[in-house]
């Protein structure tokens, strides 16, 4: 049976990586965390890539990797929160994958901010107000999806189980 790849999208720190790896375990399907693949390939952290080569270099790599993995049968993909800034990525994912948007309210997300700051260059040097603006702006990107899952009040395990159940993946 052909299994369509699944792409998880949503704002930084919503839990795409954890939910993706749980889905992969529960469904025995391969898991690709795009950011981790890029880091592995370049032997360098994304925050250092931003600092050394600039964001545009990272975005090019992001496009290359996603274009490749979005066509791999059965794969569960976790995308960086800014991936859908690129129309090409959005188009490829919407055509090739089942795109699942993991949503979270600002109030819940705000509690995670401190732990996310260090590894997220996009959040650095911004005030909480500016981060909130980014959070709101990004919502429009995630309107391109096939199904949305609100994660407020749910553990990552519960989100993964809910996805499996509601999409009848098992
Ligand atoms: C980014 C999100 C990050 C990572 C990079 C840029 C963004 O991924 O791709 O730091 O622009 O939102 P996560 O969403 O996995 O944190």
From TrEMBL:
Residues that, per the record, bind substrate: 35, 59, 81, 138
Pfam families for the chain: SKI
Family matches, as Gene3D superfamilies: P-loop containing nucleotide triphosphate hydrolases
Gene name as annotated: aroK
EC numbers, comma separated: 2.7.1.71
Homology family: Belongs to the shikimate kinase family.
UniProt key word Transcription: no
Function, as annotated: Catalyzes the specific phosphorylation of the 3-hydroxyl group of shikimic acid using ATP as a cosubstrate.
Protein location: Cytoplasm
Record-level Gene Ontology MF annotations: ATP binding; magnesium ion binding; shikimate kinase activity
Residue positions binding ATP: 13-18, 120
Record's subunit section: Monomer.
Pathway(s) it belongs to: Metabolic intermediate biosynthesis; chorismate biosynthesis; chorismate from D-erythrose 4-phosphate and phosphoenolpyruvate: step 5/7
GO biological process terms held by the UniProt record: amino acid biosynthetic process; aromatic amino acid family biosynthetic process; chorismate biosynthetic process
Binding site for Mg(2+): 17
Catalysed reaction, written as an equation: shikimate + ATP = 3-phosphoshikimate + ADP + H(+)
Protein name as catalogued: Shikimate kinase
Keyword Secreted on entry: no
UniProt GO cellular component terms: cytosol
Superkingdom field: Bacteria
Keyword vocabulary terms for this entry: Amino-acid biosynthesis, Aromatic amino acid biosynthesis, ATP-binding, Cytoplasm, Kinase, Magnesium, Metal-binding, Nucleotide-binding, Transferase
Cofactor(s) this protein cannot do without: Mg(2+)
Alphabetized InterPro entries for the sequence: P-loop_NTPase, Shikimate/glucono_kinase, Shikimate_kinase/TSH1, Shikimate_kinase_CS
Cofactor note: Binds 1 Mg(2+) ion per subunit.
Chief location: cytoplasm
